[in-house]
Amino acid sequence: MKYPWKQAILTGVIVGLFAIFAFTFADALNKKFAWGVNPSTIRGLTGLLTPIILGTGIYTGMQNIKRHNNGILTYKQAVAAGIFIAIITAVIVAILGLIYVIIVNPRYSDYMVAEGEKAMIAEGKSPEQVAAGTADLQKQFSVPMQLLQALVGQSASGTLISVVMALFIRTKKTKNQK
């Protein structure tokens, strides 16, 4: 099977850049218009859009393999292509995220923790609860955890998308085929 490198790399770059720019843009609007939405919520909502892009990349990769195999694509080939794209995407998203949190916005983790702390205080949590919650946020927004979240999130969602999408994209056997 020919691996869909082009679709995988393109999908990874688009997902990674979208995640960074969508969050940055939405958070800037949130600050400018004082909407009061926690940046973690913005991050989560913009992150919910990335599987759509990932699914599109997986679809084009499956179709590319089908086209190169004279219209034939088994379920196994389709799933393998999708998982391949998901893993490459996950690695690229993790690398772009690493560049973002280390070079482009090295205060990202501190900002997310501080905003989470403000939200806990506004909710009236006790100092002990705020301290425990802040410690959890520091772990969640640490650089290693950000990398792990990108790797696991994109790989898992891409695998799920692949397993389902392959059912529809694969070549169906006709009555004459066994």
Structure report:
The chain is mainly alpha-helical and 178 residues long. The protein has one domain. Helices cover 80% and strands 0% of the residues. The longest helix has 30 residues, at 75-104. The mean pLDDT is 94.
Q: What secondary-structure arrangement, pairings included, does this model have?
A:
Elements: H1 5-32, H2 39-47, H3 50-68, H4 75-104, H5 108-122, H6 127-140, H7 143-169
Helix pairs in contact: 1-2, 1-3, 1-4, 3-4, 3-7, 4-7, 5-6
Question: Which keywords apply here?
Answer:
178 residues; 0% strand; 7 helices; mainly alpha
Bin the strand percentage: under 5%
Low-confidence stretches: none
Oligomerization state of this entry? single chain
Tell me the major beta sheet. none
Q: Report the helical percentage.
A: over 70%
- Give the overall shape, derived from the CA principal axes: elongated
Number of helical runs? 7
Structural class: mainly alpha
How widely separated are the two ends?
21 Å
User: What is the H/E string?
Assistant: HHHHHHH
How many separate structural domains? 1
Q: Supply Rg.
A: 20 Å
Average pLDDT rating: 94
Q: How many beta-strand segments?
A: 0
Summarize the structure.
This protein has 178 residues and is an all-alpha fold. The chain contains seven helices and no strands. The chain is 80% helix and 0% strand.
